[in-house]
Design a protein that fits this description.
By secondary structure, the protein is mainly α. It has helices spanning 4-7, 17-32, 48-63, 71-85, 87-100, 107-117, 120-134, 142-155, 159-166, 177-181, 190-203, 214-238. Helix 3 packs across helix 5 and helix 11 (190-203) packs antiparallel against helix 12. Mean pLDDT is 84; it is low at 33-42.
């Protein structure tokens, strides 16, 4: 099956709306050079394919956010996809992404479609992976940050959760990044730090992504490790046991 690695988990609601239109056109163009419309139906359940095609559409938006598409960006994105999803899926994903980059995408409509159908934990993981892409060159530029904030707002992601996802990517310029990663102030007591860690560890545990496939759970484990790293950083800084 063509694109069996990337979309083998199936598509439900992503076959409808703006994402479905993009997927139908892009995949159809790759297969036979003709535009194909995706089926106009939607399922309430989120399948692995829904998550992945949504991720690719939003990655295309991030790559184009600063108005300057660098040749090395696709190579960097591929390395991120390989690290999270493996070689075979990354190769298929890059084919789709290259076509998406040629399309005019309304990220607002796409984000609204995702927000209506995807659960909160899955939306947090989408944002995490988008930050990985935005940070691929060592910084998240103003245009990329603005885009990610708009997407997060449509997703209904709280300011605390957005800052927690962003924090590890600002560690070089923000000495309080570890506290923000746990959603607390630097003035928090040791007990409050421990409580915040347990809360965040539960929120970002990969098991929250069950149903989206083992590869998506693997990608989610990276954010889980970032929470653990922030906690260890604070413990070492404070001399906590």
């Amino acid at each position: 099956m063509k694109f069996g690695k990337w979309l083998g988990g199936g598509l439900g609601w992503a076959f409808a709306g703006p994402i479905g239109a993009l997927a139908g056109f892009v995949i159809g163009a790759i297969i036979d050079g003709k535009q194909q419309d995706g089926p106009r139906y939607a399922s309430g359940r989120t399948y692995a394919g829904d998550f992945k095609i949504s991720l690719l559409v939003l990655i295309a938006c991030v790559v184009k956010a600063d108005g300057v598409r660098k040749a090395e960006e696709i190579g960097i994105v591929r390395r991120i996809l390989v690290a999270n999803f493996g070689e075979a899926e990354a190769d298929e994903a890059i084919q789709i992404l290259n076509r998406l980059l040629q399309e005019n995408i309304d990220e607002t409509q796409v984000a609204w479609q995702i927000s209506r159908h995807m659960n909160y934990s899955s939306k947090l993981e989408l944002l995490h992976l988008l930050f990985e892409v935005a940070y691929a060159d060592g910084e998240v530029c103003e245009a990329e940050m603005s885009l990610l904030q708009r997407i997060a707002g449509i997703f209904g992601v709280s300011a605390m959760d957005f800052n927690a996802i962003k924090a590890p990517y600002t560690r070089s310029v923000d000495e309080d990044w570890a506290y923000k990663a746990l959603g607390i102030e630097k003035s928090a007591s040791d007990e409050e730090v421990k409580k915040a860690y347990r809360k965040m560890a539960m929120k970002y545990h990969p098991d929250k992504l069950t149903g989206l496939g083992e590869d998506v759970k693997k990608a989610g484990a990276e954010k889980f490790r970032a929470v653990q790293e922030a906690y260890e950083h604070i413990k070492k800084e404070r001399g906590m046991k």
